[in-house]
Specification:
A five-stranded mixed β-sheet has the order 3-4-5-9-11. By secondary structure, it is of the alpha/beta class. The chain has helices at 27-34, 63-72, 76-85, 90-109, 169-188, 235-245, 248-252; strands spanning 10-13, 18-21, 117-124, 128-136, 139-147, 152-155, 160-162, 165-167, 194-201, 205-208, 216-219. The longest helix is centred in the middle third of the chain and has 20 residues, at 90-109. The protein is built from seven helices and eleven strands.
Length: 255
């Protein structure tokens, strides 16, 4: 919809009933004009356009980790000395994580042609972030990505064992999904269930106990299977949840 001077004030999809309000001051006028097309079944919700600093749609996979890598990368001579001595740098582990998030992010982006929406590096209070959020026909999912090149990984009901060490990846995935569900439910005004996903990259072997049912555990090449999921959200709800998810304020207010 445009004003008489050509300025766009709203965008409305009659097929899904999705309405995006671009000029808040024109809310009442827009709703009056569209009243014949707004039915109870479409349940549209008007959204105010985001300022660029609040829009997370431009975030790239691993943006938060890239900042950490840049911060920890030493100068050339420190780097050369560490390599000559065989010493591992602190930045190396962050680079491995960055490579994992980029790999998973690329797989998730391929789902866009099937009606899925994806966001990366979602900032949360406390200088932490959610690696990826996927929203589409099969529902909403929160991805926790871990790269352990060549490792044999065992996943239990609450923890993960790799090379004799235990990691709280399962519990962290559950906690992130609960936090995401609460944030999106509050922002959307209707219940949004977010399912946790623990994604492993470049592992040699992955074993998951059959009793673990509330957290999806997979490898990066399994992500393409999400294109077959259909029973989660209608197209209009996908857009509503995605609009809330891409707003930085949705997440920084979550605790």
């Amino acid at each position: 919809m445009n004003q008489s001077d050509g300025k766009k004030v709203a965008w409305f999809d009659r097929r899904t009933g999705y309405l995006e309000l671009l000029v808040e001051e024109q809310r009442d006028a827009v709703l009056d004009v569209l009243a014949p097309y707004l039915t109870a079944s479409s349940s549209p919700v008007a959204h105010k356009a985001l300022h660029s600093e609040d829009d997370l749609a431009g975030n790239r996979p691993g943006d938060a980790l890239q900042m950490k890598v840049d911060e920890l990368t030493p100068g050339f001579w420190q780097w050369a000395l560490a390599r000559l001595s065989g010493r591992r740098l602190e930045a190396d582990s962050w680079r491995a994580g960055l490579a994992g998030e980029r790999r998973v992010g690329a797989e998730l982006e391929r789902l866009a042609r099937r009606g899925w929406r994806v966001l990366h590096s979602i900032p949360l209070p406390g200088e932490v972030d959610i690696d990826h959020v996927l929203i589409g026909p099969g529902g909403a999912f929160c991805f926790n990505t871990k790269r352990h090149r060549g490792a044999r990984v065992w996943v239990g009901d609450d923890s993960v064992r790799i090379g004799g060490q235990s990691y709280p990846y399962v519990r962290k995935s559950r906690a992130e999904a609960r936090r995401a569900s609460a944030a999106l439910t509050s922002a959307c005004g209707f219940p949004v269930e977010v399912q946790p996903v623990l994604a492993f990259v470049a592992v040699a072997e992955l074993q998951v106990v059959p009793s673990l049912r509330d957290v999806r555990v997979l490898q990066e090449h399994d992500i393409s299977a999400f294109k077959h999921l259909k029973s989660g959200l209608r197209p209009d709800k996908v857009e509503l949840v995605y609009t809330a998810a891409r707003d930085r304020r949705t997440w920084v207010r979550s605790y």
